[in-house]
What we know:
- By secondary structure, the protein is α/β, with parallel strands linked by helices.
- The chain is about 45% helix and about 10% strand.
- It has helices at about 15-30, 40-60, 95-110, 125, 160-175, 190-205, 210-220, 230-235, 235-250, 260-265; strands at about 10-15, 35, 70-75, 85-90, 115, 135-140, 150-155, 175-180.
Amino acid sequence: MSKEEPAPRLAVLGAGVMGTSITTLALIHGVPVVLVETDPEKRAGARTRVERELRTAQLLGARPDISQGELLIRASAADCRGADVVIEAITEEPGLKVKALTEVDAAVGADTALVTNTSSIPVDELAEALPHPENLLGVHFMNPSYLIRTVEVIRGSRTGERALASVERLLAALDRRGVRVGDGPGFVTSRVLHRMINDAARVVQEGRATAEDVDTLMQDCLGHRTGPLRTADLIGIDNLVDSLKVLHERTGDAGCRPCELLRRKVADGELGRKSGRGFYTYAVGL
């Protein structure tokens, strides 16, 4: 993006882990964000969570030396009006995603690109329920998105050139490299990674190794940057289980059926970093 070119206008749906992370990425690159959260409690704490992420990005050297974008926190899809791109980052539940995207589509009109940050639901499955399916594509940001510079870009069979061009302009403004992949359950990263995490958790469940031992072996022997179970804690174990369910339902792959240990952790509220405990223990809120 040239200095003369105005920053794209971005709206983000959902102030959870990924919505907050994507918002932080945009703000540190000077892109203004309207962050929409319909839940009053989550909305009340959204600015604090973003500010904490901004401080973390600063400490980790991930903030470029440019003016920070403006953040507005709003309650309704109607507040997305005027955005060039809207990124949906809500719960991995197809019905909820379709409802949110349909509401946004009605609010913004035919010129705004709609992006789903789903980790597992095919873009075409979501697009077929929308009034303007040509406006939808997938961009799978990884968490924390202000540290991970590569993203999956999924073009559905209905995705139009205008939407694709708008998203490519946004990614350029965010200094992100998009790798285009084919549509389908889990795309590339989730199709490979989430089954691996499920298998890693199953090894711990069977008592053959601790979570620390699994991660150490995967890091030191196979070069996995954080280890699969630390990654599970970062993703959010509830989000991971939801994604595995989608993969299992749409592929029939028994290896994607969430193992008992993952399901038990969700039932016990051990969701990973966001809850303070998952496979590891964390200071709450970090």
